[in-house]
Amino acid sequence: MRNVYRLALLTPLALVSLGAPDASAQSGLIPVVIGSFTTEKKCTLYAVTSGSEAAYGRSSSAGYAGWGGAGYASSAAFAYARAWRTELVRDCVSNFSALRQSMEAAIASSGKFRVVRAGTPGAYTLTGAMSEVGASGSSVSTPDMDQKRIDAKISVQFSLKDARGRAIHGNMITKTIEIGSTTAGETTTAVTADTGRTIYTQLQREVAFAVARSAAFKLVPLRVDEVTDRRVKLNYGTPLLTRGAVVLLEGPGGEEIKCTIGLAGNGYAWAETRGTGDIGGVEPGSVAVYAEADSPEANSPTFERVDLPF
């Protein structure tokens, strides 16, 4: 009994040094390491290439030649584009700590994984590289109206490796968010814009959650736990699954059934069918496919086209 009390007083570091079992193994959670996320450029280069005023002024072929002009350069939207660039550089020099922290939170809160340090026995490792980081502009003109907008964009190519260092999964994910827009008519001009910090926070969070979902669903697939006449219960919940998200199921006849998540809780979510399809025929244990909000699958028509009678 004396030895037990002595062990209880030791620090966590001392427990590791004594060879105590890993906490992930004890809890039954899968250990995952969120590794480094690098960039294809030096961080300082993003200060002059990611949405700079000079870039907008000389990129007429992309349809936003006039964005660097005095009228729009002084607007809130262009100022926030510069602020977005500042937030990008700040996160870049810290090895994208905000991005990695969002991934850690998303994976850990799923209830199926435990974020651990590098070198933990049996742990999977998630790493990535940022590319196509920056801002872009577009414009549409008609005889009566001129519309322009600036978008922030980030692409990340990630890789998931097992404990032996073998790549078992990978993909490239791109997210785009509008920084600001202007609509000008004959007598009225409207400008909308979000702050640079707001845009970057939202964008990196969407990227982080998309990467976390892809890695998590590879290790523990998104599945149907329960089926009713109109709804299915899934084995994941918030924050990886949120209300309004689209999941795809395969019906008993092989048809695709599109469902929308109406309720998401801790470790579970309920999804309802959006169109045709026998959701009651879906078997528990069936694999579901998550459709990112900006994917064609999430935005395709729900109902079949039917010719109306004259």
Oligomer: single chain
Q: Give me the side-by-side strand order of the main sheet.
A: 2-1-3-4-5-6
Structural class: alpha+beta
Radius of gyration: 24 Å
Question: Beta-sheet strand percentage?
Answer: 25-35%
Q: Looking at the structure, what is the overall shape?
A: flat
Distance between the termini: 88 Å
Order of helices and strands: HHHEHHHHHEEEEEHEEEEEEH
Helix share of residues? 25-40%
Whole-number average pLDDT? Answer: 77
| Number of helices, where a helix is a run of at least 4 consecutive DSSP H or I residues | 10
Q: Profile the largest sheet.
A: 6 strands, mixed
Segments where pLDDT lies below 50 for 5+ residues?
Answer: 1-26, 50-74
Give the number of DSSP strands. Answer: 12
Please give the structural blueprint.
Layout: H1 2-8, H2 12-17, H3 23-27, E1 30-39, H4 43-49, H5 53-58, H6 70-73, H7 76-93, H8 97-108, E2 113-115, E3 124-141, E4 146-161, E5 167-184, E6 189-193, H9 196-219, E7 224-227, E8 231-234, E9 246-250, E10 256-264, E11 269-273, E12 289-291, H10 296-299
Parallel strand pairs: 1-2, 1-3
Antiparallel strand pairs: 3-4, 4-5, 5-6, 7-8, 8-11, 9-10, 9-12, 10-11
Helix pairs in contact: 4-7, 7-9, 8-9
